[in-house]
Amino acid sequence: MGLSFYYAFLVYITAVSAAVGSSFAGSTSTALFPPANATITATDTFFPNASQVGHGGPTPTGDEAAAIATAPAVALVDNVFPLVKPATSDKKPGFDILQHLGNLSPFQSVKSLGLPDASARVPDGCKITQVHLLHRHGARYPTGGSSFAAALHTAATSTGFNTSGPLAFLSTWTYKLGEQTLTPFGRAEMFNLGVGFRVKYGDLLKKATDLPVFRTTSEERMVDSALNFAAGFFGVQSYKDDYHQLIEIDDELGKLNSTLAPWNCPVFHSRVAGFGSAQALKWANIYLVSARERLSPSIQGLVLDIKQLIDMQTLCAYETVALGYSAFCGLFTEEEWKGYEYYVDLHFWYGFGPGAPYASAMGLGWVQELISRLTQTRITNFDSTPVTFPFGQPIYVDATHEIVVSQILTALNFTTLAANGPLPTDRIPPNQTWFANQLVPFGTNLVGQVLSCPASDTPTHIRWILNDAVLHRGIKQRIAEINFEFDCFGNYTTPNPDNIIDGRYPQSAHLM
């Protein structure tokens, strides 16, 4: 073959390599669909829509479902198809890693949250008159890159790098994750949540006098979650015409505020907010010691530290919900996965839950809106109108982040969830009650059932269901107890963690 062919082939290979990224350890690999240079020569006239084609066949609709009241039991979500459930390194039977990934766990129903005999089904003799749904977005890509992938990629470019044994796969592993947007599995989670909510509560739509207003925030994964939920709830053909989607600005810098993105809380952006990650790291330095000793001999050229091991466990979670499977999952034992679960529990308890002095204040706005909706009393100091914040809807749906769900749960004062706090950082306590994977997994949903007991059109109380498990009510006088101005704007340092169990700064403490 001539040199011209050789150089042409070399140019081709170089172009392909640039397009797909480097293929050695830790490098980033991406794909774009549709491809950047793709062109479609056919016009829409070649692809008429269903109304133009016609011949749709019979189209009468049936009656609305009300399975939450009519079925003898509530259907539970207990599978994560099409994700592959991984095994631990010690191959313990019956242990499901995907139920121990904290806030990165795929959604599965919780059987009990302190009330083992309670059912989400509407009690006999009662009638549901209204429902309030607060849910998290579906499974997403990480909010940033991987520190482990970056360190691995750097190590792989140096001499002396080698992997073997359980880490042999790292020699060809590439980082394939996107950033922040929903994964295909996350879209399915939201669609299925919408379908399930229609089957359970669709009968309430008969009480509607106008199109409902559902709310979300402006980040892409939030909007996509809301739209996928609506497509499941209303149907893909008509959902855009069946409701109004209110999108509130999600300002991570905290200059603007929304009850679904309550970042306008200066303390939340201060060093006090790092307390949760600091407490969690104390535990990581205990539970991951044996993993570091076991895995370190299998890699040369990179010294594994505790933070990299945490990142490897986190990669197991993100790769599984994005790619369907992750080889990182099988690197750790059952005990180490229980340790990771508790690591996330500590992070949420002290960062966004009952152990965070600002958590209740940040969840307060949504609780105030809830009371406003229930009492039909307008909040005059909130920037909303009757059009964007209507009263009298039979169904309310709000989409938010897991951090906000944790803060709202804390503001609502569900005391059974905080029963065994404060959480220690040197051991996993017995009879634990605060589990991030049960409270704030991908697709987590909190449902407020407004009931009339005995059955009538006059509501008597509200009952809370979190991920299909009944919660003990605890919101009495809660709004008056929370000092928003001090907890969010006060000039204080991190208080003694033993004094915080309800997401508020200790009331006996002085301004520092």
From TrEMBL:
GO MF annotations, alphabetized: acid phosphatase activity
Top-rank lineage group of the source organism: Eukaryota
Pfam families given in the database record: His_Phos_2 (PF00328)
Keyword Ribosomal protein found: no
Entry keyword annotation includes Hydrolase: yes
CDD domains found in the cross-reference section: HP_HAP_like (cd07061)
Protein name as catalogued: Phosphoglycerate mutase-like protein
